[in-house]
Amino acid sequence: MLLLLIIIIPLISSALSLLIQKKYLNPLGIIAAVSSFSEMLITFFIGKDVVEFGVYSFTSYLSVDSIGLVLMAILAISNFAASWYSGSYLKAEMKKEIIGFTRMKQYFTLLHLFIFAMFLAIITTNPIIMWISIEATTLSTAFLISFYNKPASMEAAWKYLIINSVGLLLGFFGTILFLYPVIASGNNEIINWHTLMSGASSFDPFIAKIAFIFILIGYGTKVGLAPMHTWLPDAHSKAPAPISALFSGVLLNVAFLAVLRFKSVIDISIGKSFSQELFIFFGVLSIVIAAFIIFIQKNYKRLLAYHSIEHMGIITLGFGFGGIASFAALLHLIYHSLAKSALFLLAGNIILKYSSTKMENVKGMIKTLPVTSVLFFIGFLALAGVPPFGIFVTEFTILSTGFQINPVITIIVLLSLVLVVAGIIKHVSEMIFGEPAQGISKGEAGINTVFPIVILIAILIFISFFIPAEMQSILHFATLNY
Amino acid sequence: MISGSPQILFFIVSMILGSVIFMHLSKRISTIIFFYFFQSVIVSGLLLDLSIEKASLFLILTAIATFAIKAVIAPYFFRRLIRRHQLNFSTSTYLNGPLTLVVLTLLTAFSYSHFFKPLCILAIENEKALLISVAMIFISLFLIINKKGAISQMIGILSLENAIVTFAYIAGLESGPALQIGILFDILVWVIIATVFASMLFKKFGSLDVNEMKNLKED
C-alpha cells in the first residue's frame, strides 16, 4: 500500500500545483515541501520492512529490494532538499524578474511528475514499465531545461530530448531482446525481473550479448557515460539549480539501476566477465574524458556536470571490478548523490548572487556568501576524495581492487583522478578567494536556501564516519549479485 | 497469419524499409511525413494481423490505437507545424545523395552480415524479414544523424520506434497489450512535446535547421 501511496502523492501534488492561482504563491512551495516530506517518511517505513524482510512488495507489480531501497532513499532525501530549496530559490528569481508566476507553476507541476516517474522506475517489477518511466523522466524534464526560454537553454533541451530519446529507444530494443527466453519458454505470466532471471540460463549467449550492449548504450546515455554523455553538461548547466541537483544526484542513478538490473540477468546467462569488461571500458572512458574537461572548464555548473560524468564512471568501474569494489561503488553512489545535490543547490545560491555561471565572474565568495562558500568547499573536498570523507574510502577500495585485476587501467584512472583534484582546487579556490566585483552585495538569500543544503552535507559527513549496521546490511545484500 | 507466410512478410517489411530509404532521399518535409504515414499504416496492419491471429479484442484495440497515434495524430501534428511556420522547403543532409546511398547499402549489408546471422534463431522461418528490420533500425538511426532538420530528426526517432516494433512482431517478442498501450501513450506525449519544442525552436532561431543552433558552443 505504501508503494502505491508513494507514486500517488507526487501525482496529486502535480495536479494541485496546476490548480494554484496567482494570488496564492506560497502554497506551491508548501505543497512541494509537504509532498517530499511525506515521500521521505514513506521511504523510511518501507526501508524498515526491507531491512527486516529483504523485500517490500505491493502486488506482483510494485516491489522494493535492497538496491531499490538505496535508490529510493537517495531520491527521497534529495527531493526533500530540492523541493524545500525550490520555493525560496524561485521566489528570488521572481523578485529579480527572471521568471513569472506561470513559470513557477509550470516548474512545480513538472517537478512532481518527474519525481513520480523516478519513483515508478525504481519500484516497478516490470522492465517495460521501467523503460516507460525513464522515458517519462525525459518528457517531464525537457521543459524544465528550457525553463528560462533562452536560445541556449532551448538548444540544450532539444539536444536532451533527441539524444535521450534515441538512447532510450536503443535501450528498448535491448529490453525486447531480454524478453526472448521468457517468451520462448512459453511463459505467459507477467514479465518481471524475477521471471527474466529465472529464464536467464536458457538465454542464447549471442542474443544476450547483443541485448546487453543495447541496454548499456541505451540506458548508459541517460547515465551520462562517455561517449554518450554529450547532452549532460548542457542540460545540467541550463536547468534551474534544484532540477540540476535532482538530475545529477538521482536521475543518473535511476538509469544506472536499470543497467544493473539487466546486468544481474545477463550475468546468470553468460557469466560476469562480459558485462564487467564493458563496465570497465565505459567507466574508464568516462573518467578520463571528464578529467581533462574538468581541468579546462570555465563554467562552474558545467564543471559540476562533468564531475557527475566522472563519478558515474567511477561507480561503473567499481561494478566492473566486482566483489568488494561493487560494495564500494554503491556506497560511492550514495556519497556522490548527497554531495552533488548539495553542490548544485549551492550553485543556485551563487547564481542568485552573481547572476553568472562563468567562473571568471565569481570571485570572493567567502566575503559575499560565507556559508555557501564553506559548504561549497566542503562539498568539493568530499567529491575530490579527500580524507576523511567517505569518497576517499570508496575510491581507495575500488582502485585497490582494480590494481589486482588490471593495474594499467587503474594507473590511468589514478592519474585522471589526480588531474580532477588539481582542476577542482584551481577552480574552487579562484571562486572562493579574491575580491568580489563591485556592486555585489553581501549575505545569503535566506535560511531556506541554506538549511536544506546543510542537511545534505550533515548526512554526508555523518555516513562518512559512521555507517549504521542496517545500512551496511542493505548495501551488502544490494551488491551480493554483482 | 502474415508471419506464417515468409514471402508476404518479406515483401511487407521490404516496403517499410523502402519507406525509410525514401525518407533519406526526399527533400521535402511533407514527403518525409507521407512516408512515415505509409510506414505506420503497415506497422498498424501487422499488429492488426497479430490481434486477429490471437483473436484478442485488447490487441485489436492496441492496433487501432497504434494507427490513430502513428498514422493520424503524429502526421497531423507535423503537418500543422509545417503550415503554421510555412516550412515546406527542402531538408538538407550532411552527406550528399550518392554518399547517403552508399552508407545505406553498407548498413544493409552489415545487417545481413555474419555478425547478425545468429539473431535469426528468433524467427527461423522469417530470417530475411528479421534482418531487414535490423537494417531498418540502423537506417532510421542514420536518418536522425544525417538530416539537419528538426522535423526529420523527430520522424527519424519515430521511424526507429517503428523498426523496433516490426522487429518485435517478426521475432514474436511483443509485450502484453496493456504495456503496448503504455508505450503508445508515451509516444503520443513525445510527439506533442517534440512538436511544441520544434515550434519554440522556430520562434527562437527562425529556422528548424539544427545547424543554426550554436548558442551552446558560444556559451
Please specify the SSE layout and strand pairing.
The complex is a heterodimer of chains A (482) and B (219).
Chain A: H1 2-19, H2 26-53, E1 56-58, E2 62-64, H3 66-95, H4 101-123, H5 127-145, H6 151-178, H7 180-184, H8 193-198, H9 205-223, H10 231-238, H11 241-270, H12 273-295, H13 300-321, H14 324-354, H15 365-368, H16 370-384, H17 390-405, H18 407-432, H19 451-465, H20 469-478
Antiparallel strand pairs in A: 1-2
Helix pairs in contact in A: 1-2, 1-4, 2-3, 3-4, 3-11, 3-14, 3-19, 3-20, 4-5, 4-11, 5-6, 5-11, 6-9, 6-10, 9-11, 10-11, 10-13, 11-14, 12-13, 12-18, 13-14, 13-17, 14-16, 14-17, 14-19, 16-18, 17-18
Chain B: H1 6-25, H2 29-53, H3 57-85, H4 97-111, H5 127-146, H6 150-171, H7 177-205, H8 215-218
What do you see in this structure?
The complex is a heterodimer of chains A (482) and B (219). Chain A has helices at 2-19, 26-53, 66-95, 101-123, 127-145, 151-178, 180-184, 193-198, 205-223, 231-238, 241-270, 273-295, 300-321, 324-354, 365-368, 370-384, 390-405, 407-432, 451-465, 469-478; strands at residues 56-58, 62-64. By secondary structure, chain A is an all-alpha fold. Chain A has one domain. Chain B has one domain (2-218). At the A-B interface, α5, α6 and α9 of A face α5, α6, α7 and α8 of B.
